[in-house]
Amino acid sequence: RARLAGDGRLAMFEPAMAETAVHRSRLEDELRRGIQAGELQLYLQLQVGPQGDVAGAEVLVRWDHPQKGLLSPAAFLPVAEASDLILVLDRWVLAQSCLLQLRLKAEGRRMRLSVNVSARHFQQSDFAETIIDLLDRTGADPGLLTLELNENVLVADPDDVLAKIHRLSALGIEFALDDFGTGFSSLSYLKRMPIHEIKIDRYFVQDAPVDAASASLLESILRVAHSYGLRVVAEGVETVEQAQFLRERVPEIVCQGYLFHRPAPASDWLQASDDLVAPVSPLLF
Ligand code: C2E
Ligand code: MG
Ligand code: MG
Ligand code: MG
User: Fold this and answer.
1) Coil, strand or helix: which one is 177?
2) What residues does the EAL domain cover (predicted)?
3) Nearby residues of 278 by Cβ (< 8 Å), 6 or more positions away
4) What is the C-alpha separation between 146 and 197, in angstroms, rounded?
């Protein structure tokens, strides 16, 4: 277990330290400061259609920490998600994604952007209003925005979930169910959910070509998705075998994974990349 050194500073074993309350609250303070200081960055990972076409891109946040370097969400999201800081983070990412969409469009690229929404954020009673407000203020096209929810969001209060999804879908926003297969919901659950897309977790994708049980599970997911008319995105496609396995079963499947594209800074897609990631602006709060 993690222990504090005598002087109250954290000792050397970093990973276990993530467990301690002191570490959590320090990291939380630091993240709050980092967001204010403009240290978060948007990365994009392309989603590739059957003809090698770009079907869209997922927005993935990174923290360019002044001492620790570029941090993945795993290093800071759990801490953010344990507090309301996740609301600040998610809204920052959403606002920047709207601005990115506009700048891409101005440069002739109409690109659908998929943005992750954490459970705590989605469960806010004013979630739909804040999204609508953001779209109003930025002028971003709701028809080019997908919000990614995970299954655990959906089991909370079905009526509330349905109301929010319906309200935002009416504007043209699409919803994706992220990490499909890893959460609590069953396949039959999809019937009640007015979502547009499922993202099959990479766990199923990776094993499918080599493991019969994973393969048949994946095949049932694909069948159900098809019968509900849902778009399917496969996450974590790393090998040609995985891509072939998927495309043989669902020719129109969209693939996202290192085989096709690794997440890269969003500014790579812009000709003028000067002020893409601006520090927190009044737009946000
Ligand atoms: P996710 O939404 O399921 O995103 C996919 C994750 O898989 C990303 O990890 C991506 O870099 C990684 N990935 C993509 N292709 C491959 C592959 O071929 N192989 C492997 N092994 N991994 C692949 P990342 O960027 O570390 O993000 C982790 C999670 O953090 C995301 O999982 C998402 O749940 C969350 N996240 C990322 N950005 C945001 C954000 O802005 N807001 C919120 N609330 N959550 C975010
Ligand atoms: Mg996602
Ligand atoms: Mg996922
Ligand atoms: Mg995830």
Assistant:
1) strand
2) 24-277
3) 38, 96, 99
4) 9
Write down the residue that tokens 């570029």 correspond to.
Answer: 70
**Closest protein CA for atom 7 of ligand 1:** 236
Radius of gyration of the CA atoms of the chain, in A:
20
Assembly ipTM: 0.97
Residue 143 in tokens: 């028809």
Instruction: Give the dihedral sign, CA 113/116/121/123.
Output: positive
DSSP-assigned letter for residue 82: T
Interval between CA 201 and ligand 3 midpoint (Å)? 6
Q: 237-282: per-residue pLDDT in tens?
A: 999 999 999 999 999 999 999 999 999 999 998 886 555 444 444 4
Residues near ion ligand 4 (CB < 5 Å) are: 179
Q: Counting Cβ atoms within 10 Å, is residue 189 exposed (0-12), middle (13-18) or buried (19+)? A: middle
Amino acid identity at 276: L
Q: How many CB atoms lie within 10 A of CB 34?
A: 19
Model pTM score? 0.90
Cβ–Cβ < 8 Å for 187, 217:
no
